[in-house]
Amino acid sequence: MQNILITGGSGLIGQRITAMLEAQGKSVAWLSRSSQSQKSFIWDLGKNQIDPEAMEWADAVIHLAGAGVADKRWSEERKKLILESRTKSTQLLYQAIESATNKPDTFISASAVGYYGFDTGAALMEESSPAGNDFLAEVVKAWEAEVKKVESLHLRTVMLRIGIVLDANGGALGEILKPPVAAPLGKGDQWMSWIHIEDLARMFVFALDKTTLQGVFNAVSPNPATNYRLTIEAARAKGKPFVGIGVPAFVLNLILGEMAAMVIGGNRVSSQKIQKAGFEFEHPILIPALKDIFHR
Questions:
Q1: Which CATH superfamily includes the segment(s) 3-294?
Q2: Domain extents for the chain?
Q3: Tens of pLDDT along 150-170?
Q4: What is the pTM for the complete model shown?
């Protein structure tokens, strides 16, 4: 039986991955700050501590941990937490793997399409496209640099640059549909590279099972949509009123501060590399994906 250790396992994505892996007969444990109903090992980023048995037990690590980017307004303290929850957690994992007698052989890490920058217009971003230079791009660059250090320990390492995750229980759709009336943000013509949560969870499992897979892959559907399109179709699928007049950029700046750049801008991101590696999407088209999410 293969033993899989997951950080951030109690989140939306982690729970779906856990269920899929256990359905395959794999043994799953979470790295957690406290004991869970799920089998778990304890770690504490603040104290830079981790149960040394965790890496002795694990055959593979799936690293999802990181403070939510859109959960709170970006104060300097919040920005520091967003960065360090990713870099310091990865450093702690590196130290634990380096010290382990029986090292895991695979390390699969979340990353983000924020790597490419807040707004890349209509240009199609591929894994080889240059990094942006804004706050989130700097976070992702620093995060990926720490993951690459893990690779130096001779583990097969995969990074999945995740786009906008569509799920009925939270994430982007929850925010888009939170107001009484749904409306596009800014001009509404900015690209949103989305992925159905089931396809994202399946992609992590695919990366685990396909032992030849290595490197960076975009975790987005093959069919990105504009903010206007995604918002109107989500409203229709949910049965919620939609107004086609966009929320002005200056209003978003007042409400969100620096974080507004994340929703006013957008990225059109390619999924070709992961598809060429053999991954097949179950929900590649927006309208059927939204119907599946809201009418399961």
A1: NAD(P)-binding Rossmann-like Domain (3.40.50.720)
A2: 3-294
A3: 999 999 999 999 999 999 887
A4: 0.95
